[in-house]
Amino acid sequence: MSPKITTELLKQLRQVMKSPKYVQEPVQAYIVPSGDAHQSEYIAPCDCRRAFISGFDGSAGTAIITEQHAAMWTDGRYFLQAANQMDNNWTLMKMGLKDTPTQEDWLVSVLPEGSKVGVDPFIIPADQWKRMSKVLRSAGHDLVPIKENLIDTIWTDCPQRPCKPLITLDLNYTGVSWRDKIVALRSKMAERKVLWFVVTALDEVAWLFNLRGSDVEYNPVFFAYAVIGMNTIRLFIDGDRMTDPAVREHLQLDSTLEPEFKIQVMPYGSILTELQAVGASLSPKEKVWLSDKASYALTEAVPKAYQYLTPYTPICIAKAVKNASETEGMRRAHVKDAVALCELFNWLEKEVPKGTVTEITAADKAEEFRSQQKDFVELSFATISSTGPNGAIIHYKPVPETNRTLSVNEIYLLDSGAQYKDGTTDVTRTMHFGTPSAYEKECFTYVLKGHIAVSAAIFPNGTKGHLLDSFARSALWDCGLDYLHGTGHGVGSFLNVHEGPCGISYKTFADEPLEAGMIVSDEPGYYEDGSFGIRIENVVLVIPAETKYNFKNRGSLTFEPLTLVPIQTKMIDVSLLTQKELNWVNDYHQKCREVIGAELERQGRLEALQWLIRETEPLIRVLIYFFSVCFSWVVSVFISAGKRKKKKRKGKQVSVRFRFSFCMCHPQK
Amino acid sequence: MSPKITTELLKQLRQVMKSPKYVQEPVQAYIVPSGDAHQSEYIAPCDCRRAFISGFDGSAGTAIITEQHAAMWTDGRYFLQAANQMDNNWTLMKMGLKDTPTQEDWLVSVLPEGSKVGVDPFIIPADQWKRMSKVLRSAGHDLVPIKENLIDTIWTDCPQRPCKPLITLDLNYTGVSWRDKIVALRSKMAERKVLWFVVTALDEVAWLFNLRGSDVEYNPVFFAYAVIGMNTIRLFIDGDRMTDPAVREHLQLDSTLEPEFKIQVMPYGSILTELQAVGASLSPKEKVWLSDKASYALTEAVPKAYQYLTPYTPICIAKAVKNASETEGMRRAHVKDAVALCELFNWLEKEVPKGTVTEITAADKAEEFRSQQKDFVELSFATISSTGPNGAIIHYKPVPETNRTLSVNEIYLLDSGAQYKDGTTDVTRTMHFGTPSAYEKECFTYVLKGHIAVSAAIFPNGTKGHLLDSFARSALWDCGLDYLHGTGHGVGSFLNVHEGPCGISYKTFADEPLEAGMIVSDEPGYYEDGSFGIRIENVVLVIPAETKYNFKNRGSLTFEPLTLVPIQTKMIDVSLLTQKELNWVNDYHQKCREVIGAELERQGRLEALQWLIRETEPLIRVLIYFFSVCFSWVVSVFISAGKRKKKKRKGKQVSVRFRFSFCMCHPQK
């Protein structure tokens, strides 16, 4: 992949940074954050401003352009990708490494005295504004909001903002009606004594109204805001979407409703003025609740004294704990997803040796198999289909320039998922279609041990996910290996594949405690730059655990894998597994065989079924097995030696040997 | 222990809260934090205001008194103690439990509209002021500084502030002269472009000047502040302490020095006005560096634009990484400490069955043995000597009312340590002088597994201690057990037994990454209210680790125990240990035997040496050993049966059996 040449663009941007047409006073630096006005992680093409200016199109990164420099901050998932996509105008700032300066510190170190730093106030979250603004101010600089987005002024062929039709979800999928969600929200508002709640995150709007859209690729959301009062509901949304009879019916727009459930539909662009009007109408002690990650523009629309900001909104927290209908939907989605992957891996096993499969065709084939499943909507993120050295680019997406042919000599990593109407999936499997090296197996097995350590962890109610992160790394650490990304993220229910407020990460973020019903991913990995990448990812459901002493009735939790796709046993060095880990793999494969086997059979996919059965054969310890057989043979020789005169039948020996080898292989059974 | 009756005191306090003599306007709430003007954890008697008003004298806790309520926030270590020491006027707020409100939220929920909340600005840290003030303001209340401490106004017999002689430490102990420390500090100041640095923590003043004091029990510190400029050094300290010739010589007060190393000695009480003068003299861009935990009063003395606040000061970070002289000192101190404890445990083993030893006499005996060691100064904290149910009170200190006699029927927990001129110790051992129950052994073994998991952990350079906390809990969690305190804290070098900026805790605090040379404690526990307490604590040194792949030259770390006191094997259920854990215990005991044995012998403490040798016998797996003996016996019977005719000697069988049992006991050897 060749980097984007940005010399001319940066020149233009530096001109508008000084142009009185766009800025009151020249700005010496301009910040281009990753997100959109809703602080989304995945964004519509019209919002990909950071990618436009830099060439780097990973899902996380912030660009800062000064008169002399252009710098890009991104995290470990994207170090290689960003380095490949950006030209020499750019400096890569590797977040998470000890010596990398923060954006604020870097600005202070490079800016001339008394500089102005510009940013679009709709794109920067309020908490980030506050942090940056404070540091800059204390160094004698100023962070200033620039109304017109400066990237947009130089982006001549910027695409239109999408406005696609909506999907309504009934109770079978959501478990709770939008009216009941509003009631629950208002009760949380009453608890905190706030009068208004502003819904700014797109997935929160979608979840609240039991609607889905397709404005942003992979994320079934639509551009909208909502402002919920104790007696009013305002939905800010554009286009003809509200003329769809199904949507009108779903939202009861034409019914006679109690006034507090009557939805007022307003233009998307009117949110700022409407919110300013709300702000202006407040009396002392009346509060407006916003996420502290809402945009600086919307947050500032409410006078400071009336703001009630929290890191997570009550919708975010409610959405994370899946109800029975959502959990069942997620289970169904994962069964269908596993069927598709069994088909894929069976196909790859036959096709890869022919040398005709590339990363792109493999990804396409995965999508093809998924799209054959009921209620398939779209993929849940860009498929990471990577072989050999490409596997080490953590969030790699194959493009023609980098597309590699799968072979029997290289590791293949597939991280993919889909949106089904009943749930969202996200699964990574790492396969070898030839003979993996001892080192590759060793690394794979450490990653697997980490995966199992999290998946099988038991922990008290109230534990935050970040406390489990090191379990995933311990086996790698013991040998001096590690991976530069978190271990897990929340997963939406037919919603964003990444969602808060829970996760499993070494980064100390304000995650909410794990609760039964939450769904997260468990995805440790290991990456050898220039050689290969390994990741094993399941989506897991938080469930109550049974323990001997049950934390004095505080209760305990563990995980149940929803993903049921075999983990390639060929890649496992069994001698590195403990008996408990070996049992976990065998139990997991047994469940895959039962649940996915039944569905493959029902769908008549018999070849994939054969593949599944082969791939889920129980593991045994070769060495112990070997010794146990030898040992029992020695014993049987002595038995026969001692009892030869009694002329016993040979059958007796066989039965002794079998019983004995069974004991040695399953000491914990 | 009977609670302190506080009805009259609270009445008086509520009166002064409204008295125009002390407050400009009446305050509806008054906050009594734990610390002193230096935000010390351990404080002088004259600063024990929270204990005076409430009766609760644990090391951590904040009292808030309103017109109607009196509430006390403390953490899991002190729930039982606080409940026992406070009368019914007080509500205990258990920090760390899910439903416990923060102090701010609680204030908002109980205060009448537009209330004023008072606090001594010298006692409240600036960061806490900021947080509380913000929440209170947003709820329509005000946090106001009250110059005169209101507790002091009703505390008629308040003790004098101590002012004891100083100890000077030479290079053999400190490794670095105070001049070189000042040079290093100024280079850090230059790096951050600050002109002034204010030293507010007592241990930081002591460390910087290589001086020690005894103003605060257990903490070898003295009341002082320092303000370091690029060319000036000001030390704020009271009394005749600067007339001591040794101190004058050490600080070179009477020598002709380069002006930038000339120390100006000023009265302790003049810090505020001097700092205000510094603040007033600053030009734009000139900064004053303070800890964000410095008092609100001192922080506010510097105009906001000139403040440079960080969670940890450069002194705090430099102090945490011990140099070779300090590490060697710590090793020596721990050898002496172990000698004292071997003597103690040997003595207890003989005396406890007689029924003559109480928690207090045991603690006294421990102090007696320690005081016999070279360079002993004092204890490093109040000895926690607790048996039976008292052991469940995590930071219990025996007093006559609660004093229990040690017996052969109850678990005994001793958490103790000392200050030696060459180092600080802190060790916990849990013993049974009779026969522990299976349940007690089970719990002890889980705690031991956690202790080993941390002590033997290998992790990459740059890892923060809080990421290791769950390792200590995993074995307990698996069975539904846990403990409500962190796993480890930084330990000073002949300084405070608790120090930042590193630690091992589930609480997400901004700890600095662990570095080779840092010293922390490793102390998981388990507490059964009303029955027993278990804790196993070593002080451990962070050292480089050798790993197979060494994190691509990022390097890796692990711990080396400095504490070398046997862990009672009688309490261990060997069947619950993995082979790796068993080897750890045996290797640890081997080292105790070698290092402490040699010192016991050198000191002629031969009875304690015998005890040490007995207590450090290697563990073996009884069950496996038993089976292996049986098995080899069976094999030998067959051998003899098969070969009886050849009339071999019996010696052959014996050698087979021994070789076999060795293999089974040491499969990893």
TrEMBL record, chains A, B:
Signal peptide: none annotated. Residues 328-542 form the Peptidase M24 domain. It is found in: Cytoplasm. Its cofactor is Mn(2+). The keyword Metal-binding applies. Belongs to the peptidase M24B family. Metalloaminopeptidase that catalyzes the removal of a penultimate prolyl residue from the N-termini of peptides, such as Arg-Pro-Pro. Contributes to the degradation of bradykinin. This is Xaa-Pro aminopeptidase 1. The lineage of its organism: Eukaryota, Metazoa, Chordata, Craniata, Vertebrata.
